[in-house]
């Protein structure tokens, strides 16, 4: 019975380690990759206007982007719609990645029973003895608390929209995501302005 419990706990430890390593090395790369590839309409010789969304992935705004993506491709098939994660400031990202490294290191030390305090000259603390004696609970605490802190650091609350690289909406400034009619009006105004400019050969470019 004791051996089965030991293997059961070991399986949990491996799961924590794999999830932590995946978040550290895979999720950081996915922030720089567009969540939905841009769609280009036409033969490739003509590229329509570009509407770019930069949103907070950790805030759950990817779903809002996907809904807009579907609606816009139906209403404005000539527009290229792109989306990507809005990365936080450099310092916040560095701290979040550092927390990820510390999280993995702590879980490994707890599982292996290594006393990390002995390398700093600090006597063995009762809290570390508790962590080693209660590996399952301590690993869960480290995993979920670290994830909560990382999510808070990378959460920007952003939902920024630009039309041909010109900002047309900012949730950071307005405090909200635009309603579909508002975004349609913005797009129509920009398309009308672009058409007006193209019809005036002498217009300064």
Automatic annotation (TrEMBL):
Gene3D superfamilies: Glutaredoxin. Keywords: Membrane, Redox-active center, Signal, Transmembrane, Transmembrane helix. GO terms for cellular component: endoplasmic reticulum membrane. The chain crosses the membrane at residues 7-25, 94-117. GO terms for biological process: cell redox homeostasis. This is Selenoprotein T. The keyword Transferase does not apply. InterPro entries: Selenoprotein_Rdx-typ, Selenoprotein_T, Thioredoxin-like_sf.
């Amino acid at each position: 019975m004791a051996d089965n419990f030991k293997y059961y706990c070991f399986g949990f430890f491996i799961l924590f380690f794999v999830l932590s390593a995946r978040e550290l090395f895979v999720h950081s790369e996915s922030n720089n990759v567009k969540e939905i590839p841009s769609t280009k309409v036409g033969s490739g010789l003509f590229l329509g206007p570009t509407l770019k969304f930069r949103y907070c992935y950790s805030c759950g705004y990817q779903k809002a982007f996907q809904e807009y993506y579907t609606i816009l491709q139906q209403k404005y098939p000539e527009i290229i719609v792109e989306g990507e994660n809005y990365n936080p400031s450099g310092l916040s990202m560095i701290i979040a990645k550092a927390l990820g490294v510390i999280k993995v290191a702590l879980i490994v030390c707890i599982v292996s029973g290594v006393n990390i305090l002995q390398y700093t000259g600090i006597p063995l603390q009762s809290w570390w003895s508790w962590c080693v004696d209660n590996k399952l609970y301590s690993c869960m605490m480290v995993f979920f608390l670290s994830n909560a802190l990382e999510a808070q650091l990378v959460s920007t609350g952003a939902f920024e929209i630009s039309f041909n690289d010109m900002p047309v909406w900012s949730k950071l400034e307005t405090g909200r995501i635009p309603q579909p009619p508002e975004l349609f009006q913005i797009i129509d105004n920009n398309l009308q302005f672009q058409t007006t400019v193209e019809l005036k050969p002498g217009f300064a470019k």
